[in-house]
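Cross-check.
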Amino acid sequence: MKIPKKYKLDQAVSRYEDARFATEHIHIDTDNKCAVATDGRILAVVPCEPSPTEEIIGDPALVPVDAFKAARRAAGGGQKNPDLVLMVDDRVTVQDGAGKRTFDQGKGEFPNYKNVIPAAGAGKIELVINANLLQKLANALGSSGGVKLEIQHVVDDKGVHKHIERNKGIRVTPITQGTEGENDAYGVIMPITQT
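Predicted model, tokenized:
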């Protein structure tokens, strides 16, 4: 299994065991050639390529985070090894400078992640924002629980959405846990124009 090294799926997994789902592991979806991680609030789906000699056993294949981190260390820095390489069969094996390390696959059921992915097509609004700037703004506004984004859009005389105002900023309101609605602070972030 090859996963491009730039992806850090270990950042998206749950830090705790979930009684219902195995979200503390990385799911390998061989049918869609992707690796998936979630903590129940965020979801990361990245491309991966099974090795031709790999026979993935387990439905779904659940890769422990420690195996993923070992593969990252084995790949090292720089561009010499652009991919993380894990062999997944009934166990997960990582080859590093010290030899092979073997990990047990995770146990349990991974949630049906496809149910939360928005469908392509009509009704879709796309905006690009700089995540680092959004985090900086959230910090500046004293957010401790997230932010609410408000996007101005144009409607026709019947109230039907026509388009979003691309030259307007996005209003960002902090959500401070336990005090929602009491905070008068707000900010604005501009969308990024894609070229």
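The mean pLDDT is 83. Residues 29 and 138 are 34 Å apart (CA to CA). Passed to J.P. for a second look.
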